[in-house]
Please model this.
Amino acid sequence: MDKILTKKEAVQFLGLEEKTFENYFQNADEFKCLERRNGRGRYLFDQRELRKWQESYKWRTIELTFDDYALCLDFALAQHFRGYVLSDWGTARQREFGQKITNWIKGQFAEVAVKKFFKKEFNVNIELDFRIYEEIVPQDIIGIIENGRKREPKIGIGIKSSKPKSAYLVLGENEITIPGRKSDVYIFCRPDIPDDHLLRITKERIIEVVKSQSHYPKYKDEMPSFENMFCEIAGWCNAGELEKVKSIPGQEFTGIRFVKKSGRLRKNREDWQELLKRL
Model:
């Protein structure tokens, strides 16, 4: 056993936001505390175990460049201008432009990150499908490149994304119960995209618009520039390993969802090698 850390020290050691740490610890089963007597007392953590988790997290996290962002933004704008409606789950409320674009970019970021992850760590080349369809296409990996030639995957792969602090892979009922939409395996990713990403790529133009205004001097040095972003490949599971629920901690669903705690996903190197053999 390595050094024993308090909860506060564990948060600082991992460098996570406190809310993210809570979700990963309490809800996602990403890492555990030491056993507490009768379930009471302070939460204490083995630094060695936290370091193992941290090392795994780092090698599964992929850097995404401006070119990657441009590819995903182009797809998101194409979806928007073809009139695709994106509503919040369980409601008729349509998302506003910025939220729609961010969610589409997030989804495509996850796919690009998986492609780069497979190439970087396993030297496996996959092909993604960024074409625009009238109907939802369930399988996100459409080809495997071997010896310069493409073949179809042997199984269906769905790549899903959520916020960095999210503890669960969550799938809607239709994604699992409708045969034409279901995948054999789901990969869960947590891309970290700043809320102000559109500001970052339009910074110079915005400055031109507001530089003569009275408040500009107050915030001119605060306007962020574009920086590379990161996406964690949290793990994967078989469709049959998902749990059928009506709620998860902190969220009640309007219908059935199929979920998996991120800490219970298959995520070590051997797990990924097993998946790639099936692919």
User: Anything to note?
Assistant: The chain is about 40% helix and 25% strand. The chain has two domains: 4-31+41-59, 63-278.
